[in-house]
Design brief:
Largest sheet: 7 strands, antiparallel
Order of helices and strands: HHHEEHEEEEE
Number of helices: 4
Distance between the termini: 49 Å
Number of domains: 1
Helix content: 25-40%
Oligomer: single chain
Structural class: alpha+beta
Length: 193
């Protein structure tokens, strides 16, 4: 029985790697401008969806120093999980876009695919600059539940994931009530900038 589980874990690991490599390989096939265009399109669709399910988010984002929008596809196969995605950070003052990547992995029992979008809102320019230039890694402590009562106005549907950083996480069902970003690294996409 133990041999069977080990073999199953190896098969699951290769399946996760194949899916992530396939996702990465698909992006190489498109030109840099096509990739940027797809990410900008995803950003617009995500913001449109966010404003539909939580209209007050528009004011929150407009008043912020900047924001970042990510698309994430996660796969959970037996004991391993992996996710990858792309996004763009936007400086509201300068209007500059910086294209970014994200990757995460973990161990846990489950099976399935999860597709979600995340919108980070940075209340101060330093937090945005650090996120863009140094990247950011969400630790296990970064998962947080939404507490609408502790925030007023536009930020009520967001989850605070770091000082001065709020996150709206969208699923097919609308605004998520809990952020699931633990074990995730966000960093600049050198190929697209």
């Amino acid at each position: 029985m133990r041999f069977h589980l080990t073999r199953l874990n190896i098969v699951a690991a290769f399946a996760v790697l194949a899916i992530l490599c396939g996702h990465a390989g698909a992006s190489f096939a498109a030109s840099v401008e096509e990739q940027r265009g797809e990410i900008r399109k995803m950003r617009q669709q995500t913001l449109t969806h966010l404003y539909k399910v939580h209209p007050a988010a528009r004011a929150h984002i407009q008043k912020a120093a900047g924001y970042a929008v990510f698309s994430n596809v996660g796969i959970n196969l037996i004991f391993l999980s992996a996710a990858g995605g792309s996004g763009v950070a936007h400086d509201n003052k300068t209007g500059r876009d910086v294209f970014m990547k994200m990757i995460s992995g973990g161990v846990g029992i489950g099976l399935g695919v999860k597709d979600f979008r995340g919108v980070f809102v940075f209340s101060n320019p330093d937090g945005l600059k650090t996120f863009i230039n140094s990247g950011w890694e969400a630790s296990a402590q970064a998962d947080a539940a939404a507490k609408a009562g502790s925030k007023g106005g536009a930020a009520a549907g967001a989850i605070t994931v770091a000082p001065g950083v709020d996150l709206y996480q969208l699923t097919e069902n609308g605004l998520a009530l809990q952020a699931t970003i633990q074990g995730t690294k966000y960093y600049k996409n050198d190929d697209l900038n």
